Amino acid sequence: MLRARPETLMLLGALLTGPLDPAGSQDALSLPWEVQRYDGWFNNLRHHERGAVGCRLQRRVPANYADGVYQALQEPQLPNPRRLSDAATRGIAGLPSLRNRTVLGVFFGYHVLSDVVSVETPGCPAEFLNIRIPPGDPVFDPDQRGDVVLPFQRSRWDPKTGRSPSNPRDLYRPFLDPSISPEFVAASEQFLSTMVPPGVYMRNASCHFRKVLNKGFQSSQVLRVCNNYWIRENPNLNSTQEVNELLLGMASQISELEDRIVVEDLRDYWPGPGKFSRTDYVASSIQRGRDMGLPSYSQALLAFGLDIPRNWSDLNPNVDPQVLKATAALYNQDLSQLELLPGGLLESHGDPGPLFSAIVLDQFVRLRDGDRYWFENTRNGLFSKKEIEEIRNTTLRDVLVAVINVDPSALQPNVFVWHKGAPCPQPKQLTTDGLPQCAPLTVLDFFEGSSPGFAITIIALCCLPLVSLLLSGVVAYFRGRERKKLQKKGKESVKREAAKDGVPAMEWPGPKESSSPIIIQLLPDRCLQVLNRRLTVLRMVQLQPLQQVNLILSSNRGCRTLLLKIPKEYDLVLLFSSEEERGAFVQQLRDFCVRWALGLHVAEMSEKELFRKAVTKQQRERILEIFFRHLFAQVLDINQADAGTLPLDSSQKVREALTCELSRAEFAESLGLKPQDMFVDSMFSLADKDGNGYLSFREFLDILVVFMKGSPEDKSRLMFTMYDLDENGFLSKDEFFTMMRSFIEISNNCLSKAQLAEVVESMFRESGFQDKEELTWEDFHFMLRDHDSELRFTQLCVKGGDGGGIRDIFKQNISCRVSFITRTPGERSHPQGLGPPASGAPELGGPGLKKRFGKKAAVPIPRLYTEALQEKMQRGLLAQKLQQYKRFVENYRRHIVCVTIFSAISVGMFADRAYYYGFVSPPSGIAQTTLVGIILSRGTAASVSFMFSYILLTMCRNLITFLRETFLNRYVPFDAAVDFHRWIAMAAVVLAILHSAGHAVNVYIFSVSPLSLLACVFPNVFVNDGSKLPQKFYWWFFQTVPGMTGVLLLLVLAIMYVFASHHFRRRSFRGFWLTHHLYILLYALLIIHGSYALIQLPSFHIYFLVPAIIYGGDKLVSLSRKKVEISVVKAELLPSGVTYLQFQRPQGFEYKSGQWVRIACLALGTTEYHPFTLTSAPHEDTLSLHIRAVGPWTTRLREIYSAPRGNGCAGYPKLYLDGPFGEGHQEWHKFEVSVLVGGGIGVTPFASILKDLVFKSSLGSQMLCKKVYFIWVTRTQRQFEWLADIIREVEENDHQDLVSVHIYITQLAEKFDLRTTMLYICERHFQKVLNRSLFTGLRSITHFGRPPFEPFFNSLQEVHPQVRKIGVFSCGPPGMTKNVEKACQLVNRQDRAHFVHHYENF
User: What family does the database annotate (predicted)?
Assistant: First the structure.
């Protein structure tokens, strides 16, 4: 913006006040060589800053603010600006200027003022003095809403002012002369506004006044001011000639009368701010005066030495008294409250009033006399006297003639005034009559049309995790399919062979259920078998000789359906593809019945009737549920009401249930067994007294009574009878062997025939029957003489209905066996006590009386429950909670301290940035624009930057392994690095979501904010160039660096977090591994995201630099090891999909037992590393791993090392090795007593520990650890026979009784089932006679079921009363480690030994 030329100021002064005397030129030295500076600096030789850019306006009258400093006067102290505008300036347009001033002079004056004093530029931070519109205003509130507010943004001001009454708020305008006063700004603009006409003529040099085009109005004589002021592409001003015509028209047109009246084009239809298309120019000017702190009318008169009117009528005799009356009413008749602007307008008529004239004259005199470069100053040496005279004689007419190349006769000599006789008089003085109507007020909605797109964008961003989840599901599906293909290789041919004799069909299971594909097989020995598409047996029906089979065929709808009804079985409804396929099956069935002498009756009916007649499996299950309810009700003497609710037609249902008979398959299903099991066959044959192949209610009841209420003698006699196959009253060795074989079936035939024969011979020999080939019942019962208690609690495990009704009602009858250790002087720890359960829970051992079968049995309290424990349990609830809290803090104090410190830092960073931008924000005013959004986005940005930076330290494996051996391990839980990594990641992603939500709020607010506001908030991005439309929401999201990188960051985070979930990692470790390497892109985007500096300077690097350097160094250490090829010495395929690898130990490779490494197989790629625990001991010369094939990579690894190698070890693919890395298990030696709990493949770290322990003890090494209890939980010992070999080696070398091993086989039923009881008896017999386990061959104790951790830990406190801290180390499935953790927490509530738990899941 350029400063006005001197002659321009002279012309404006002459226009407003008359000619100025050139008397006051400033004395100055002649400096002909000096060049005037553009910014005005050094204009004044004494005060260099005067006249320079950056100085504030100079007040002529003291500021008038509500608080004397800053706050503008508003309602109710002063009238409403809109009401004041209506009262003081409304009137009829069309009154000509008394001095015949032209419109050209008016608009030239506005041009000069806008060049010198542009105060409309909004201030930053944005502040508003909005104008409230009175309800029912005909222009702005025609609907009488009463809530219309015209926005008014305060002007830019000097931030050095507005601090005290002696330094009130003052305006600051660049490119302004500091000697310009705010009073002049108000006076000049307001006086000129009264002279603006409602329209402007256009004419050519020949005095032809042309018509103009109007939108929606064909043509008119003039350009309507209200409709043309802000139009940049005016159709009437498309050429230079048309602009010339506009200037010529204004030179001939006489302006409005210089009085108080302002035409409606300015007062009602002035271009509005922000989203309002219209505003009140006068009301805005009044509000601007209040913003600038202008004095009252009386104060200004007094300051300029003018007389103050005594009453309202003295203001101006030419003003309508009604106007004065209305104005006085608004000011409560207080003339001293009258403001400068309305007072100056009311006093003017024909010329500016005394006050306005004084203000303008004072301003122009100071402008002239304060300018060292004024053209009339002869001492500045800029112009000669001749040049000065030439300048004086040059008028605007001369300029126009020269510029627009018009004949001088077309313009009067003084273009600012039109006198009679001047060329081209105006057609008439303009009024609003006959002019186009002003375009009405419209309120722009900046967000119009954007709502659907904004909502879709937000929803799309929220769906990024779902998209990532879908992608991970697809990847997991294909990886799972690949794994299944690898696992099922070689099985397809077997299945095809099994399916070739079957007939495919669809089975209809019942109403509201979809049919499923099956295969029907008609097998020899009158057997009908149903298989699913995987060839798994779904159902087997054993038909009896001469049994009648009913076949019902559908007679409509394609004749594709048939119903097969077999007595005492639920019906089979089959749907075939065509009638021909059904006919082929019917013929096969006829031949089958003829061959095996079965009766076949064929009938036909409609398909609908056929479906209604069918007895489906669902109906059969409901019948069987009633069957079992009444069965148990009779056995246990339970009231019928307690057996559960029955249907409304209960009597009929009960009769139907009690008359039904169970098939062999249903009997086996009720016991949770397979129909082909030997035990099922023996039990069913014994119970089926009538030999019809089915069990009636009475037959089942008889055998159930024996198990539920019978004595040990009754149960042993029942078993004797079951396996007396030849019914000769004796049990031969072969029959005894068959009985044992039926029991062994439930443990996956874990014993070979030779081992089982050895067990039988041993039991005969121990009982003194080695010379007998057959046993009587007395002999058989004598053999079980030491196990009466086990037999007493033996029962049949009946499942009942699938609905769980039987299980819920009779769950108190489900018993479990557990073993725990007690202190036995002079002996090793051994299993103690078989007691009935306290409840249906799987973990037992509690004291007190136990309910069994409706009766109470007294059980002695185990010695591990001491008197002190009972006293402890008598504490109040508050004391118990305090003790729990104390123990929890003691166990996790390092974790709590570290998490607290990290959280405090994160919260502190959030609070610091949130407080700064919310309440101590920079002068951009962003907090006033979007408080919630800026607090959320800035606070979370600081916390996320800190978290995403320092999360790298949790993955510095080499550094952590080193530090955990230092004193820092006493203060920092390095073993929890992975858990801490997950915790930080989850906290960071929550904050990232909040950060995104904050920016979503910001984007919405920025999308509906005017450009003047955005230019304050983002001065480097937006310029308030007059455009009203802010950027759309998609610009913020997709066309800015922060927005686009933010969207990409959300996408990267969604992929990384979903693929890192536990569920997905188990299905595709490679997918997790690859997607987690997106962290490189993540950090690159984070750096770019903040580099644009929209709100603050980039700061992410401040947090990121140190962790990145440390992490980079740690990665370099790993890279230095990764590329060393290591030869595999031995590879062996072990049962249960375990691959044993033994490979060379790199030079200088030192590790501790319990540590783990990462390996990559060169044959499977050199970039995919997988973590495995070392099973070798530190003293061994080679390294070894036991790797279970659970995924595609481990399965392919097993295949690679399964191939025979002709060159020995040289033929095996080589490995890359990275490690070793530390974990909590390696701290086992820091506790006097340690408990190692391994489940499944989770036993691998303990293999190394056990070998290391025995080796150190054999050398006589001094160790803190004096006892190790190893609990091995396995489904069957055959799964990990390699570990049994290691345990056997430990037992042989453990001469100091350091290790106590307990093996829990979970595949065997935990209930007091008949089969489990017999296996338990055999196991204890084998342990007693041969001092080794029947199942494992070890001296270690073998238990059936799952370990009862809480009683086990309680017993350890009894065995080791002097030990104050016991280490517990578990590795296995999450369910097992959670049970261990829960048991530790429960035991730690007591004031006894403290159990410190370290765990790893796989």
Answer: In the N-terminal section; belongs to the peroxidase family.
Name 19's Cβ contacts closer than 8 Å, sequence gap at least 6.
none
Show the tokens assigned to 814. Answer: 């489900």
Check residue 262 and give its pLDDT. 93
Structure tokens given for 733? 């060795």
Residue 338, number of CB atoms within 10 A of its CB? 24
Helix (H, G, I), strand (E, B) or coil at 160: coil
Q: Rounded to an integer, what distance in angstroms lies between the CA atom of residue 368 and that of residue 372?
A: 8
Closest CA to 1000 of 955, 972, 964, 1033: 1033
The answer to whether residue 118 scores a pLDDT higher than 70 is no
Q: How far apart are CA 1320 and CA 1325, in angstroms?
A: 8
Handedness of CA 1390, 1392, 1393, 1394 (dihedral sign): positive
φ, ψ of residue 1322 to 5 degrees: the values are -65, -40
The 3-class SS string of 1308-1355 reads CCCECEHHHHHHHHHHHHHHHHHCCCCCCCCCCEEEECCCCHHHHHHH
Q: For all residues of the chain together, what is the average pLDDT? A: 77
Tally DSSP H helices, then E strands, for the chain.
50, 35
Which residues, other chains included, contact 322 with Cβ-Cβ below 8 Å and sequence gap of 6+?
none
Task: State how far the Cα of 1213 lies from the Cα of 1165, in Å rounded to an integer.
Answer: 11
Whether the model pTM is above 0.85: no
What residues form DSSP beta bridges with 505? 518
914 contacts 935 by C-beta, under 8 angstroms: yes
Burial 858-879 (b: 16+ CB within 10 A, else e): ebeebebbbeebeebeeeeeee
pLDDT tens-digit profile of 403-436?
A: 888 888 889 999 999 988 899 999 999 998 888 8
Asked whether residue 1396 carries a pLDDT value surpassing 50, the answer given is: yes
List pLDDT tens digits, range 1107-1159: 999 999 988 887 776 667 888 888 888 777 788 888 888 888 888 887 888 88
| Distance set, CA 342 to CA 261, 289, 318, 465 (Å) | 11, 10, 15, 63
Question: Strand pairing partners for 729?
Answer: none
Other beta carbons within 10 angstroms of residue 1361's beta carbon come to 12
Summarised one tens digit per residue, pLDDT across range 603-625 is 999 998 998 888 887 777 777 77
> Rounded to an integer, what distance in angstroms lies between the CA atom of residue 622 and that of residue 809?
16
Which residues, listed in sequence order, are joined to residue 554 by a DSSP beta bridge? 605
Q: Measuring CA to CA, which residue among 111, 253, 247, 263 is closest to residue 188?
A: 111
pLDDT in tens, 444-473: 878 888 888 889 989 989 888 888 888 888
Pair 117, 176: CB distance under 8 Å: yes
36-88: per-residue pLDDT in tens?
Answer: 776 677 777 777 776 666 666 777 788 888 888 888 888 888 999 999 999 99
The HSE-up count of residue 231 (CA atoms within 13 Å, CB side) is 15
Please tell me the distance from the alpha carbon of residue 903 to that of residue 73, in angstroms, as a whole number. Answer: 48
Percent of the chain at pLDDT above 90? 13
CB-based burial, 135-144: b 16+ in 10 Å, e otherwise: eebebbbeee
Handedness of CA 226, 229, 234, 237 (dihedral sign): positive
Q: CA dihedral defined by 476, 480, 482, 483, rounded to 10 degrees? A: 130
Strand order in the sheet with 1267-1274: 1341-1344, 1299-1305, 1267-1274, 1233-1239, 1365-1372, 1394-1401
Residue labelled with tokens 């999909």: 1137
Surface-to-core class of residue 845, CB atoms within 10 Å of its CB (0-12 exposed, 13-18 middle, 19+ buried): buried
> Which residue in this structure is represented by tokens 């003829």?
594
Helix (H, G, I), strand (E, B) or coil at 181: coil
